[in-house]
Amino acid sequence: MDCTLVRTLVHRYCAGEEDCVDSRTVYVGHREPPPGAEAYIPHRCPDNRIVSSKYTFWNFIPKNLFEQFRRIANFYFLIIFLVQLIIDTPTSPVTSGLPLFFVITVTAIKQGYEDWLRHKADSAVNQCPVHFVQHGRLVRKQSRKLRVGDIVMVKEDETFPCDLIFLSSSRADGTCHVTTASLDGESSHKTHYAVQDTKGFHTEEDIDSLHATIECERPQPDLYKFVGRINVYSDLNDPVVRPLGSENLLLRGAALKNTEKIFGVAVYTGMETKMALNYQSKSQKRSAVEKSMNVFLIVYLCILISKALINTVMKYVWQSEPFRDEPWYNQKTEAERQRNLLLRAFTDFLAFMVLFNYIIPVSMYVTVEMQKFLGSYFITWDEEMFDEETGEGPLVNTSDLNEELGQVEYVFTDKTGTLTENNMEFKECCVEGHVYVPHAVCNGQVLPAAAAIDMIDTSPGAGGREREELFFRAVCLCHTVQVKDDAEVDGPRKSPDSGKRCAYISSSPDEVALVEGIQRLGFTYLRLKENYMELRNRDNDIERFELLEILSFDSVRRRMSVIVKSATGEIYLFCKGADSSIFPRVVEGKVDQIRSRVERNAVEGLRTLCVAYKRLMQEEYEGIYKLLQAARVALHDRERKLAEAYEQIEKDLILLGATAVEDRLQEKAADTIEALQKAGIKVWVLTGDKMETAAAACYACRLFRRNTQLLEVTTKRLEEQSLHDVLCELSKTVLHRSASLTRDSFSGLSADMQDYGLIIDGAALSLIMKPCEDGSSSHYRELFLDICRNCSAVLCCRMAPLQKAQNVCFIFPQFLYQFFCGFSQQTLYDTAYLTLYNISFTSLPILLHSLTEQHVSMDTLKRDPALYRDIAKNALLRWRVFIYWTFLGVFDALVFFFGAYFMFENTTVTSNGQVFGNWTFGTLVFTVMVFTVTLKLALDTHYWTWINHFVIWGSLLFYVIFSLLWGGIIWPFLSYQRMYYVFIRMLSSGPAWLAIVLLVAVSLLPDVLKKVLCRQLWPSATERVQRSSSRRAPADAAPSPDRPLLMDPEPRPRRE
To answer: What residues does Mg(2+) bind to (predicted)?
Structure first.
């Protein structure tokens, strides 16, 4: 009986912590392991299909309806609609059902269209052709058909179709270069390494003969972490076990560069790739505007319930008199008299809720949705955002958060590559206190390329000369730089070698700058060939060092090391890293002189690194090798074991010297930072640089100004004071003075204002964010957050309502009308008007206003970023604005209702002596309301175009035409037509025309007064600019604001 399967399972799950890891086994090329090696237990893994869409054909309707009815307004109108179907209500179910159906349908179409575009993009990706190895030859198939274990070939400039373990490449050294810009924004080339035992397999036949299994961790989203090991089987010997790390993993979405082709085996496919795990949505995102609208709608819901309760109570007070409860012309049946009083009261309450339900504007959501959807096209069409170099414009993947672009409060930015060019230039190096500057200028002459000048006192002696050359060798060897011929490189920096021209490629521009700088001082790194690093010394001799180990750089250690063996058999450990990580591990060397030079360079904004070494005996190295190998092949807790091993190895070092490189600021970086601060946006800079280096760069880019008072929360300060004392002291400094700080709201930051800038390093930040022992969050977090909010800039170094008020004036007259109709639940407006008010009569003008309105021109906003403060922090949708528009809606409703009531009370208004009935009265109120709310929007419009004119005046014309047709024609599909000839008879009356004009004028009076008085007495920054622009316009003969929508002021380059 074969017990291999049982033995394997027992070993895997019961053998200890190493095998408790939740891991998977990948069979390379789907080949089973040799008999007796281990049991073949295939894992079920997804295919390589990518799904970024939200819906499918089958779940679209239920899932979309569920998401839409999570909104308060939609759910509320659904309940109202069901109530209208169940009980006898004063209005038809159509009045609620049709607007709800319209909103749900339009929103579903918009979301369905956006999801259809995602389906198209997914289909294009999933059907891309991929080459994979099958039976010793290349076969093409669609990307979606890839499976875990398939061996894939990727050519230069192609993207990796899934997460691959790098097996071999066309390069002899088994390396390849990739760019991960689509994953993490890094455009520099990163070097990845093939498995040592498979890098010699260069053909399809060779790679197909590979017999190996891979054990690795389950899929997880960290782009920079991977733990695994590969077992390579041979016919006779036990399997060779090699560790696998992030340097062996090629991620989906990354692109192959400067390498002809590579072979890799798929380990994570489809939605299990790291890229997919990072963009999978955890929950539906809602903007601040939508959250505010939900809160305001709850307020209106409370008002609605209050109205219904008041009317219900007043109805039964009114009906307490017998002749009112049961008049002679409307006798009750016996069943109605026996009906339970509480049930009748509840039914009446629901009926009043239905009657007043339009205070909650269901169409507001569809207006917002359409504004987002159409606004995304405005972003796409913006030619100012078109990049001529790439030939690409902006792409809007989803429109859900468009309005958040105008509500940015904080900007977090990296320093290297964002504020700076990430194009390093070697400036100097310091060896045992002696400074060397390549290409130094002496008496106006540039010294030869290989020459150097001692900038301190005298040249080093014989012993110093040996240390100097050892320093140069250390810089030439301690790196991960790759060398490639000039003809094969697509654009990196070139090495000024006297022989054949070549290029240095590395994921870190610092390493390239150091290797090139040392080359100008006489030592040239040539290549890594067959695990030997070659360099040319000052005497033009070639030196070869065997590369034994690489102790890779990480953001925690902040250093890297290499162990090499010279031709004479001497073993060296060369280490370079940040001064804070090197100096504590040094036992010998001129520490004080080098530390002084490092601090001086840091203050000047230069990036500094320290270099140290130690010699190893053969026995020491053998112990180091065993220690590293045991840590590297571990599947459980590998990072901790490697960190402990590195800590044991990188100690008792001898300090050699330090280097300094410069990373210049991006063009206009300083102007951008200054503009952001004027706009009230807080900028946080995150960098791994030394504090002095980072602070110097922040001064250069104007993040810190001349009068900025710097506040420090650094490890050095925490050595002298406790964290509690430091934060309390800063809190007193910042928070207690914040009330006295003054800001000029028009010009941005005041020049003489006391400004605060906070500097914090990674260790101090970790201490602040560290949770308490009981698992709760630290009480220092809120204090630290308050300090940050009152600082204009933070440097982290060493890191790793208008439409709702339309609806108030719409439904409040309905509430007032109940006091004049015996609380009989008689509706004031016709069913058609109730249904179309939000859908047709008032929706289009506000939609187009939201899309085309410009308070000030784009050029003005660029010149004065402080104008951004007027709309920041959701300023136009705050409680003060909400309450103002609500009370204004109540005022307008009172004007509409009582103005019409008192003007026509007991008055003959037609030529034949007839008086207006209730439907004519309601139509008059509705007409005044439609004209008022539309003209209010016209008053609020600053940027007039032909589109605004068309929709504003066109919507009023549409209302008039609709009313004429609705009441002027006998419609055969209606069982009764209470509005027949009502609108025409109203317009035939002179007093009706007078009422419309007077009531509209009175309703608009508060808006006109506010607009005039506030602009003259308390103008905002935007209003000041508008006023000054209007004064300059005639003199400057400025083009009409309509012009951008009609034609371009000057021709633009045509897109191909």
So the answer is: 414, 416
By CB atoms closer than 10 A (0-12, 13-18, 19+), residue 588 is exposed
* Residues 887-940: tens digit of each pLDDT: 888 888 888 888 888 877 655 556 666 666 778 888 888 888 888 888 888 888
Cβ proximity of 210 and 28 under 8 Å? yes
- What type of residue sits at position 428? E
Asked whether residue 416 is marked as a ligand-binding residue, the answer is: yes
For residue 103, is it within any domain?
A: yes
For residue range 676-700, what is the model confidence (pLDDT) as tens digits?
A: 888 888 888 877 767 777 777 787 7
Number of other CB atoms surrounding residue 355 within 10 Å: 25
Among 767, 796, 825, the domain-final residue is 796
Question: Tokens 């509320």 — which residue?
Answer: 76
DSSP structural state of residue 35:
T
Quick check: is 23 in a domain?
no
Active site residues: 414
Q: What is the pLDDT of residues 85-126, one digit of tens each?
A: 887 777 778 777 877 888 888 888 888 988 898 899 889 989
Consecutive H or E run containing 223: none
The 3-state DSSP class for residue 761 equals strand
Across the range 1029-1043, mean pLDDT stands at 49
CATH code of residue 526: 3.40.1110.10
Same domain, 629 and 675: no
Residue with more model confidence, 83 or 525: 525
Question: What is d(CA 110, CA 366) in angstroms, rounded to the nearest whole number?
Answer: 10
Q: Select the more confidently predicted residue: 1015 or 575.
A: 575
Q: Does 798 appear as a known binding residue?
A: yes
The pLDDT mean for the chain works out to: 77
Residues 6+ apart with CB under 8 A from 460: 431, 432, 434, 467, 468
Q: Which residues contact 655 (CB under 8 A, 6 or more apart)?
A: 582, 583, 586, 588, 589, 590, 591, 594, 610, 611, 612
529 is in an annotated binding site: no
Phi-psi region of 707 (alpha: psi -120 to 50; beta: other; left: phi over 0): alpha
Which of 240-249, 402-411, 1032-1041: highest mean pLDDT?
240-249
Q: How far apart are the first and last CA of the chain?
A: 71
Residue 310 lies in a domain: no
What range does the domain containing 160 cover? 146-279
Which distant-in-sequence residues (6+ apart) come within 8 Å of 618 by Cβ? Answer: 571
**pLDDT surpassing 60 at residue 837:** yes
864 and 960 both lie in a single domain:
yes
Instruction: Give me the pLDDT at residue 165, please.
Output: 92
DSSP conformation class of 774: T
873 plus 727 within the same structural domain: no
842 within domain boundaries: yes
Q: Is 54 annotated as a binding residue?
A: no
- At 521 the three-state DSSP class reads coil
| Same domain? 646 vs 708 | no
Q: What is the distance between the alpha carbons of residues 142 and 535, in angstroms, rounded to a whole number?
A: 45
* Co-location of 440 and 569 in the same domain: yes
- Say if residue 682 is in the same domain as residue 658: no
On whether 158 is known to bind a ligand per the annotation, the reply is no
Distances (CA, A) of 418 to 491, 681, 685, 715: 20, 17, 10, 26
Q: Residue 1040 — pLDDT band, cuts 50, 70, 90?
A: very low
Residue 222 to residue 245: CA distance in whole angstroms: 13
- DSSP letter (8 states) at residue 991: H
107 assigned ligand-binding residue: no
Among the three residues 279, 311, 327, which one is the final residue of a domain in this structure? Answer: 279
The count of domains in the chain is: 5
The number of residues making up the chain comes to: 1056
Report the distance separating Cα 154 and Cα 257, nearest Å: 11
Instruction: Choose among 98, 77, 104: nearest CA to 354.
Output: 77
893 and 980 housed in the same domain: yes
Residue 608 assigned ligand-binding role = no
- CATH number where 150 lies: 2.70.150.10
804 is in an annotated binding site: yes
Based on the fold, state whether residues 843 and 887 are members of the same structural domain: yes
